[in-house]
Hints:
single chain, 234 residues, alpha/beta, Rossmann fold, 2 domains, elongated
Amino acid sequence: MKRELLGALVAARQKKEPAVLVRGLTTGKHCVLTRQATYGDIDDIDPVVVAAARAALESDGARTIEAAGERYLVQTLASAARMLIVGAVHIAQSLIPMAMRVGYEIIVIDPRTAFANPERFPDILLDKRWPHEAMSDFELDARTAVVALSHDPKIDEPALQAAMDSKVFYIGALGSKGNHAKRLERLAALGYTKEQLSRIHGPIGLPLGGRSPAEIAVAILAQVIQSRHQASSR
């Protein structure tokens, strides 16, 4: 691999930004794409493959593509997917270690210092701002899941609004069917469309039937994993 391409991949990893490596399996042509730039033999690679590589910036994994008689390997190289948990509650305490086990970077957002403190969440990044302030500082991209657990509209709903206005692959909110219906009414009154509101999984999690914080956490993580892989396969 050319030094220029390796340098681009290393720089993207340091910035925690995705990059896509394209390799011609017979011609040996190589290029790297990031969201900001392209490097290498991109002008010599079929535009169909380049377009697929740009789309792969929002996904995971690798696949081969055939174009103009050539086979290319298109491989996404990215840092860990991220889960923004809004609400430092008991369910979050159960969810975090499981999500970390399957590779998620975790950030907990909650202005209530009685809940969001290092004693309850050791070694976890805690953002103690209100979500309407905090969410704007995070890149809400297609590798991000937003999980709203506070059950307080003042905390959850600004986070849900930011998530719906972004490319995050998963949005979920804790609450019963009745509470979720009222939540959707409030958000619709702010101008959100049915299509946007349909992105929110509520009640949150796959319907596994569990009721304890740990069981609800399992259902949430299962739904996040399902949503991520469904998004990557589109």
